[in-house]
Structure formats: C-alpha cells, structure tokens
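Course assignment 3, question 2. Fill in each field.
Student: A.L.
Task: Predict the tertiary structure for the chain below.
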Amino acid sequence: MTPALSLHAGDWLLIGGYLLLTLVVGILVKGRSESSKESYFLADRSLPWWWAGMSIAATTFAADTPLAVTGIVADRGLSGNWIWLSWIGVHAGVVVYFASRWSRSGVLTDAELVELRYSGRAALGLRTFRAVLYGVVYNAIILGWVLRAMVKIVTPFFHWDVWLPGPLEWLGRIWPADSALGSPSEGLTIVALLAVVGTYSTLGGIRGVILTDLLQLGMALLGSVWLALAAWDAVGGGDALRAGLGRLYGADHAYLDLFPSLGSGWLAAAGLGAFTFGAYLLVQSYANVPADGGGYLMQRLNTTRTPNESRRAALLFLVLQYVVRTVPWFVVAVAALVLVPLGAESQALGGAGAAVGADRELAYPVLMGHLLPPVALGLLVTSLLAAFMSTVDTHLNWGASYVVNDLYLRLRPGASARRQVRVARLAVAGFAALAVLVSFRIDSIEQAWKWVAALGAALGVPTALRWLWWRVNAAGELGAMATGLGTALGLSFTDLPYEVSLVLTSGASVVGLGAGMLLGRPTDPERLRRFVERVQPRGFWPGRRPTTAWRELGGVALRWAAVVAGSVGLMAAVHRIVFLGQAWIALALAAGGTPLLWWGARRGRGD
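Answer field:
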C-alpha cells in the first residue's frame, strides 16, 4: 500500500475551489447546450481553434499517463515510451490531411461518416458496429484505466475511513474484494469525482467540457512542471542524475536513450529486429488512436469554424503533446530511478518508497508526497484531478454522442431536440457507471493500453484507406474487423511478444479487407460523387487520372514526413539539452526541426 500522506488546509482549499469552479462553469453554459444535438456535442461549430487544440491536449493529459510513463521508464528506459510516442504518425496525418476533411464532412461522429462514404445495408451495419465498438467498448476501457490510475494518486491523501467510518463500514460489505479501484475508501473518492464530472459535463455539453479543459490543462502543466523541478533539485541536477544512474545501473545503462538500440536492450529481449520494430512502430502509430484522427479528436476539431481552423487546432495539439508536456514526465520518471532505486525501494525516502517495489508506477505519487511542500502538493493533486476530469468529461460526452446520433436516432428519427439532449444526459450517467464496472477488471494501465491497441490494429488500415481509394467498401471494413479482432483474440492466448502480436493483428485485418472488397458490393457511384464533392479527398477516385492521384498522395506523404521529422527533431532537441546537457546539438536539432514542421503543416493547395 502507498503510505498515508497529509494535505493541509491550503491544499484542501485549492481542491475544493477547483471542484466548485467546474460545477459553476457547467451551470453557466447550460442554456447554450440545450438547443440541439449540434449545440450539445459540437458547440454549434463556433469555437476558436486554440480552444479546440488545448482541449485535445487536456484530454490526452490524463492522470494515468505520468504514472504509466514512470513505470515504462523503470522497465525499458525513455525509449520504451515509443509505445505511445509512435502515435505522432497519426497525429501528423491529422494535421496534414484529415483535420480539414473532417471539418468539411459536417458529421457529428466518425460513425456517421460511414453512411456518407458507403451505401447499402452493409453501411448501416458497419455504422452501428463502429458506434458500439468505439462508443461503448473502446470508450469504457479507456475510462476504466483512467479510473484505476486515479486510485493510485488519491490513495495517500483521501481517508474516508477516518472521516466517515460508519458509511465506509457499510460500503465495505458490498465492495468487490481485490477490486482494481482499491479499498472502499479509495473507491468512494473516485465515485465522488465521477459525480462532479458527470454533473458539469451533463449540464454544459461540449462547451462546458472545453471551457473546463482550458483551466485543467493549465493546472496540469503547472503541477507537472513543479514536481519535475522538485525532483530535478532533489537528484542534484543533470550531472548528478547521470552520475547516479551510472553508479546504480552501470555505465552502459540505456535509461536516458530516447531511441531504442537495435540488437540490444528491451528490443533484443523481446526478440525484435530492425524490420519487426519498424513494422511495429507503423502499426502502433494507429493502434491506440483512430488512423484518421476520428473519435474525440474529430469531435474537438469539428467544434471549430472552418477547415483551416481545424488544422491549426490539430497542430497546436501535436506540439503540446510531443514537445511540451513530455519533458516533466520524463524528468520525474528518470529521477525516480535514482531517488527510489530499483531493487532497493524499501530503503529509499526514509521508507516511504517501500510501496514502489511492487508497482513502479507508484513512484510518481510517492515523490509528490515526499518532495512537495504544502500548497504546492495541493496544487499538484488538484492538477492531477484536473487531468483526470478532463479525460473523463471528454469520454463521457463523446460516448454519449454515439448513443444519440448513431443508435438512438436510428430507432427514433423524429425525436425532438429536447429529448435528444435528455438521452445524451442519461447516456453520460450510464457511461460513468460502466467505467466503474470496467475498472474492476483492469490489472494495470499498460495492460489496458494494449487492449485498446489490439482494437485499433484491427481497424487502422481500412479506416485510413477509405479516405484515399474509392474501391474500399463497407464489406471490406467489416471483413477487416472480423479477421483482425479474431486474430487479436487468438493471439491473446499465446506467448508472442506484444509488438509481434500487434503486427500480426494488423496484417490479418488487411487480408480481411481485401476479401471484403472482392466479395462485397462497391459503393454506389452517386454516393461516392457526393462524398468527393463535400470532403474533397486526395487519391484514387472516379474521374481522376492515376497520375494526378499519385502526385497528390506524394505531396501529402512528403508534408506528413516533414511534420513527423520536425516534431521528432524538436523532441530530440529538448531531450538532448535536458538529459544529456548537449546544448549545441539541441540547437542544431531545433534549427532543423522547426522549419520542417512549419512547412509540412502549412495549408496546401486544395486544402
């Protein structure tokens, strides 16, 4: 168990004031969210681009991520984070290509795009299936792992067993034994937070969610930077950090390597060569997020006014995601290896590090309680509450959009706007309850990431190709789902490394896609014409010469590569100066990465 830690009066005032403010925001914008499903789920497509970009960053800045990063670094070093840094491939594609086209599509959910793009009964079945898969299954897994992460953070600070011993004794009689949500005291904290999140997100719709996200992102960044500075100071700075790692783990340790070394380290332990690892990175890039930037990312982008603003929002998110917010997480994770050494946790921090021996992810909250003074600790706890709530409110609202737009309105197409909003609010409450149930079954945060990746690997290729090639049809997508998900289920019973299983799952989905395209009916030509006219996709479409299609796709690919290279260059520059003290190399990387990123992200002809 994590040792009990105390919050002071000033800390509690910060936490209470923040929770109250979120409720006030929901109440203030309630009237603007009730006129229609467009107002509730897309804020009438009227928000500034920087609101949308910061909101996406707040959502992905979940409370689980710094804990997961801390565990990954202890196991594989900084390079192990390519399990999620590889998502940069999809997010660069959103900036270059998909953001503006989502905006032009005019859809409310990515499942709705299915019937804009495809025709026939297969399209209806595919839309329903994707709504259930993403809106319910995928969504519930993510909410479940976020709840589980929050348990690790709140455990040392919230003591309902002391504050309310009577009700806790009653709750303990019905609480599931060995729950991933921890003890009844820990679970009650999560339920209370869910009640707050559910209330303001239900009242204010997406506008209320995004407004609170702006505050939540600022607090989350401030809190994580504060802890990183405290950890940096505690370890003695960069030189002392590097010396401590060498003393504890040998001069040839790889904890500070941003990129994995081929033929050694964790890649060699997993039996991965250069080719397999490259294939894994490609698949992993679209495995945990929709390959076309769909889902909640698309929802945020479609709250902006124009296709160009949608692109700007995507670019702002990409920079915040990979260049800005990773640094404080990495600093704390690496400092924890020195402050709470592997294998000697029980002697670290005066015994406070003992709990970390069984779960390295707990190093993050343990360092919070040990390194930060009053008020600063309250700020960081509040910032993690904010990160948690920004993720949960997004997934509650996003999940409800599928329920209303793709499921309920199929059964009640004539439902009034008032009834649609009422169903949306009921769906938010339902997803909150479902998240608690799912979290009981999640053993670790990284495990949940891998569950979601298996779903994404089965869907990634057809999801991207339907924007580029007219021949992709609804039957092809259904075939890819069947073979991909079936393969993922079968491989779950083997001892193959996760990376290999992911590549095999994606390969199987491509086989299913090809079979469905050959056996199923092509999309109706008139449906294709309307899709092309509205969305203006690049690639192979009726009436377009192959040479033109290849030239267009070549331009898109070149700009995509520039955005990826520029982003990785900036990320490597920050890594070099912070962890290795190589200022001149960092300057050169930044000087090369910045113009590449700018050129790739600019508005292209026809975009």
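Instructor remarks: The two ends are 54 Å apart (CA to CA). The mean pLDDT is 83.
Grade: pending
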